[in-house]
Amino acid sequence: MAKEVTSRAENYSQWYNDLALKADLAEQSAVRGCMVIKPYGYAIWEKMQSILDGMFKKTGVQNAYFPLFIPKSFFSREAEHVAGFAKECAVVTHHRLKNDPDGNGVIVDPDARLEEELIVRPTSETIIWSTYKNWVKSWRDLPILCNQWCNVVRWEMRTRLFLRTAEFLWQEGHTAHATAEEAEQEAFRMVNVYADFARNVMALPVIIGHKSPNERFAGALDTLTIEAMMQDGKALQAGTSHFLGQNFAKSFDVQYTDKEGKQQYVWATSWGVSTRLMGALIMAHGDDNGLVLPPALAPIQVVMVPIFKTDEEHAAIMEKFDSLKSALEALGHSVKIDDRDTLRPGFKFAEWELKGVPVRIALGARDLASGTVEVSRRDTLTKETVALEGVEQYIHTLMDAIQKNIYEKALAFRTANIQKCDSWEEFKTEIQNGKFLLCHWDGTVETEQKIKDETKATIRCIPIDSVVCEEEGKDIYSGKPSHRRVVFAISY
RNA sequence: CGGGGUGUGGCGCAGUUGGUAGCGCAUCUGGUUUGGGACCAGAGGGUCGCAAGUUCGAGUCUUGUCACCCCGACCA
After folding, report:
1. Helices then strands (H, E): number in chain A?
2. Which of A105, A206, A230, A470 is 20 to 30 Å from the Cα of A18, by its Cα?
């Protein structure tokens, strides 16, 4: 069992990796670039899923499922889209194995070559739009609002646990609308759902904005994003929502008959968040003692640790714990009693801290005598001795305070590391210090590219929320006129 | 795909001028412990990434090869 997490200051990347592994969220799999999500990590992902799913359904979205395999020919339909993904696709060429005639295990049966290769989906736009063609005939069939929870594969050169794995879990929503306005509204609506989820469930402050043309999704007319700041000052794109215009409708010939009897191409959006959110959770809130989970996502919100010497003490403590557990569960909290008798209390404290459990309750002989419990907060690492009588209400209130505090702490960190910048010299040093810089930009791809080449910084977004940016000025690099500031940062 | 690094019990590592493999953690057994990651005693576990070569002898030297990690380019 791990004893400590490497300090963040030394090597953030190493710190992050250690934490993800030691908190028991995931491990490297035997397959290059792929990970095993362990039960504790998956429990957090499941909570994310169920909360997001509920939010989607409130807006009329329905879940569906489309195939993992996409015929290669589908990819030739949308030129820009395919260019964006071509370099990272896994391809299925055969459908059968056979025993090696030379006795070396099994080989791919050369006779089982597929007539048309199948691509393992890197995203499902193509297969879904080829299906939507059959679903859309009339204006009465619109809008189509579908989401699927699935895995996708992108054969990345370099991988990082949760942040960039060859296979990852996500949800992808794909909608079809009669008008451009409606589709654009949908894209905005979803990015706001994501921001709501990030802020209120993940306790993660995010900036909503447009991607610059350079950073847009392959095939999109507009990409909306939520950008979060990690504790090393780098930006993480936490979710995206795309207005796809009629590109996919035209490529896959999805037309409907409007009220005047005319054929019209539909307008599309797509939007998604992935297990990268797990990485965001780790990097935004974790500390040197381990994970810090916001109560809204913690699979275990309260852990109870008994401290005893004799069987009599143990029995008395368990009685208190059992009734407190019921009381807390009645208030909607998930509770675990850590009754393992092979481990000492100190070990358990450290272990549950590593796993980020928001509240810990310890009860020993001293407390039995005085009718109290010791309540510890994971977010502040503080302890208080509280009367056992009615402690469930205290904890119920505390849980909201913890959720709020984790958000406030992350927001304070971001506020301290985001600043306006109008000098190119200052830009070059501050961007390396892990700052988000609000700068004027002339709106050209050339300038953005030059800044990226010189500093590795990219435009994370053109904000439409969280930070005020509408003002006249001059481009930080080219000096040309600009009407608003954009967010520059180095990103994951 | 370019640059750098590492491969030795489950994990983390040591191994000198070549001499037949060791430490910490973990595991198992017994006992004492239990309010912040316990201690003592004992035990099990490795053809040193793989393949050739040099040598009486290779974890160590040579060549080849494979895998993984880090930094770039690419991305949710």
Report:
1. 13, 26
2. A206
Angle between helices A391-416 and A276-285 (to 10 degrees): 90
Residue whose CA lies closest to nucleotide B68 C1': A32
φ/ψ of residue A96, rounded to 5: -155, 150
Q: How far is the CA of A376 from the C1' of B33 (A)?
A: 25
For domain A302-413, give the CATH number. 3.40.50.800
| Amino acid of residue A130 | S
pLDDT at res. A2: 33
State mean pLDDT over A192-218.
Answer: 95
pLDDT digits (tens, 9 = 90+) for A407-442: 999 999 999 999 999 999 999 989 988 899 999 999
Q: Give pTM, 2 decimals.
A: 0.94
Q: How far is the CA of A308 from the C1' of B36 (A)?
A: 15
**H or E segment and range at residue A185:** helix A180-200
**A236, A263 in Cβ contact below 8 A?**
no
Residue A350 neighbours by CB under 8 Å, 6+ apart? A3, A289
- A1 pLDDT higher than 50: no
Angle at A19 between CA A16 and CA A23, to 5 degrees: 150
Mean pLDDT of chain A: 92
Amino acid at A367: D
Which strand B bases fall within 7 angstroms of a protein CB?
Answer: 1, 25-26, 33-38, 67-76
- Residue A349's nearest nucleotide, by CA–C1', is B36
The answer to whether the C-beta of A309 is closer than 7 A to strand B is yes
C-alpha dihedral, A102 to A106 to A110 to A112, nearest 10°: 150
For residue A427, give Cα distances in angstroms to A206, A254, A375, A420, A436. Answer: 22, 47, 46, 10, 10
Element (H, E) at A249: helix A247-251
Average pLDDT over residues A367-389: 97
Chain A 164-203 residues in 7 Å CB range of strand B: 164-166, 168, 170
CA A132 – CA A218 distance, rounded (Å): 20
What DSSP designation does A5 have?
A: P
Q: What is the pLDDT of residues A380-396, one digit of tens each?
A: 999 999 999 999 999 99
ipTM score of complex:
0.84
The CATH class that applies to domain A12-66+129-285 reads alpha beta
Length A453 CA → B72 C1' (Å):
12
Fold held by A418-489 = Translation Initiation Factor IF3 (3.30.110)
Provide the residue ranges of all domains of chain A, joining segments of one domain with +.
Answer: 12-66+129-285, 302-413, 418-489
Nearest nucleotide over every DNA/RNA strand to the A376 CA, judged by C1'? B36
Is the shortest CB-to-strand distance from A458 to strand B under 7 Å? no
